[in-house]
Amino acid sequence: MTFRTFSYLVFIGFFMTLPLWADVFHTRLFTRILIFALLALSLDLVVGYGGMVSFGHAAFFGTGAYMTGMMSLHGITDALVVWPAAAGAAMLIALPIGALSLRTRGAYFIMITLAFAQMAYYFASGLETFGGSDGMRLLARNTIAGKEILVRHDFFYYAAAGSLAAAFLLCRRLTRSRFGLILGGIRQNEKRMQSLGYATYPYQLTCFVISAALAGLAGALMANETLYISPSYLHWTQSGHALVMVILGGLGTLAGPVLGAIVLLLLEEILSAFTQHWMIVLGPLLILVVLYARGGLHGLWPQKKVSHATTP
Amino acid sequence: MPPLLEVRQLVKRFGAMTVTASVDLTIERGEIHAVIGPNGAGKTTLMSQIAGEIKPDEGTILFEEADITSLAAHARAALGIARMFQITRVFPASTVLENVMLAHLSTRGHGFRFWKNVHTDRDSRSAAISFLQRVGLESRQETPAGTLSHGEQRQLEVAMVLAGDPKVLLLDEPTAGMGPEETARMVALLSGIKGQQSLLLVEHDMQTVYQLADRVTVMVYGRTLASGTVEEIRRNEAVREAYLGDEKGQEERDA
Predict the structure, then answer these.
(1) Closest Cα to residue B131, out of B157, B152, B109, B106?
(2) Which residues of chain A neighbour B148 with C-beta distances below 8 Å?
(3) Which element (helix H / strand E) includes B212?
(4) How far is residue B132's CA from residue B135's CA, in Å, rounded to a whole number?
(5) Quick check: B107 and A185 CB within 8 A?
(6) Sign of CA dihedral B94, B95, B96, B102
(7) Domain regions of chain B by residue span
(8) Which chain B residues have a beta carbon less than 8 Å from that of A188?
(9) What DSSP designation does A25 have?
(10) Cβ contact (<8 Å) for A182 and B105?
(11) From A178, A198, A308, residue closest to B113, measured CB to CB
(12) B145 — contact with chain A (CB < 8 Å)?
């Protein structure tokens, strides 16, 4: 067994068994970490694989959360309905946003996705039904097939972990498929892909919308975890937070954003216990990673050897 | 049998300068046709007009007997006219195999297939590997294309244009910037596809042209000086004076 496989097994074992030995505080902390890991993973699909730097993923995260709140106001509280609906709502929002934003590239794309997310933020702040800028409490967590099992924090932890694992496997298939191959080509040289005969726009838009679905699911999970929705879900700092996780962990890898979410949120947790000014420590740390670990933290991990040998 | 591609009385002017002056050119199916001439003879401009990147002022271009003079570049590419540029444009972070798969799959339906692993899909994989074998890069298939040498990247480019299954291939100085060893490998590779692939070749190096071409067109100052088989061109007096004469003189001086 290589060190790489070993470390993965330890990693998975740790997260599989965590609620069995951790107290409620830590179980809930790690639930939030897993949910943010899902958000970071969805963002990396767009940024790392699609080459589109979106600074507006909070819009889709927030859409998922508000969809959960809206359905609970109407008495629909079953996760089997609400969570797919939250993902679907995020896709519906992402379709026009992506269709318009993808007419631009580079810095303009960053700015326009940010602008759309800020529009969504102020729209949510104006929604009196959902408490305006104060937000709104949810009565209870979603049920699963009518059973209130998610009330237990350990069960909810496993629901979040299961969602992340499913999303991870989905992204893994996606990035290795023909679609993923084409997406990688577009990221590297869009003009060349066009001269090879690919219409690049539909591929990018599809990637953007799929990513939004995962962000929406993360939003629904977060609304369930905190039992609270507010415009802060849609704030641009939320988008920035997710981007930092992706870059810290390693752009264009699947394990990277998950790792980035874990490290960033744990650091925030630990440092804020020591000092109120924890950002003074965290900031330089992030700069060091960006300067000296180009592939992010995941890049520091021992990589699988690429074989250059002649294949028979 | 009518020629695959036919250029008739093509004229292109940039202001007062005529860069293509009533050029005629035919490419038969399966032949390698070389265009030679000194710098500024209008070889690349001629090729750009065939590829559709520059519009001619007069004349017609026929492809499989259809008039394509007013077609845009991408429409001509769809008909099977592929151009390989002087500048190398592979996907550096993708592996050699992925590069060829991308070129090959563009001709094989849409790419909205999200589930099946493209790397283990036997059809797309084996086709891509067969193109790599033709250019002699099959042992490098898992290498990121950006780490290949310049010559190998050019070989990969050839594999990529071949994977697009073109009817005619336009090669603009395929050995430009290569060392002698790499040039020899590229010439060997091109002679390997001789007879199977119709090819228009713009080239400076006379040795390369004599080794590869079936027929040669010599251009000077935008006009066709002579056109014929390699032997006919070698014997042509006007060509000797205008172009080869210099080279011959050079050889004598070197000796």
Answers:
(1) B157
(2) none
(3) helix B206-212
(4) 5
(5) no
(6) negative
(7) 1-80+167-255, 91-165
(8) 91-94
(9) H
(10) yes
(11) A178
(12) no
- Tens of pLDDT along A230-256? 999 999 999 999 999 999 999 999 999
Residue B244's pLDDT is what?
57
Angle at the Cα of B36 from the Cα atoms of B34 and B40, rounded to 5 degrees: 140
d(CA A168, CA B116): 16
Kindly state the DSSP code that residue B244 receives in the 8-state scheme: I
Tokens linked to B167: 């009817």
Please tell me the CATH code under which domain B1-80+167-255 is placed: 3.40.50.300
Q: Mention every residue, 6+ apart, whose C-beta is less than 8 A from residue A257.
A: A37, A40, A41, A43, A44, A48, A245, A246, A249, A250
Euclidean distance between CA atoms A246 and A46, whole angstroms? 11
Q: Tell me, what DSSP letter sits at residue B95?
A: B
For B:41-80, CB contacts with A below 8 A are 74, 77-78
Could you say which DSSP state residue A281 is in? Answer: H
Helix (H, G, I), strand (E, B) or coil at A154: helix
| Sign of the C-alpha dihedral computed for residues B39, B41, B42 and B46 taken in this order | negative
Question: Is the separation of the CB atoms in A224 and A233 below 8 Å?
Answer: no
Domain edges within chain A: 26-235
Residue of B nearest to A306 (CA): B142
C-beta atoms of B98 and A193 within 8 A: no
B116-125 average pLDDT score: 84
User: For residue range A77-124, what is the model confidence (pLDDT) as tens digits?
Assistant: 999 999 999 999 999 999 999 999 999 998 999 999 999 999 999 999
Contact between A35 and A222 under an 8 Å Cβ cutoff? The reply is yes
Strand order of the sheet with strand B223-229? B81-84, B168-172, B198-202, B32-36, B215-220, B223-229
Residue A129 has what DSSP assignment? G
Whether A188 and B142 lie within 8 Å, measured CB to CB: no
ipTM associated with this complex: 0.84
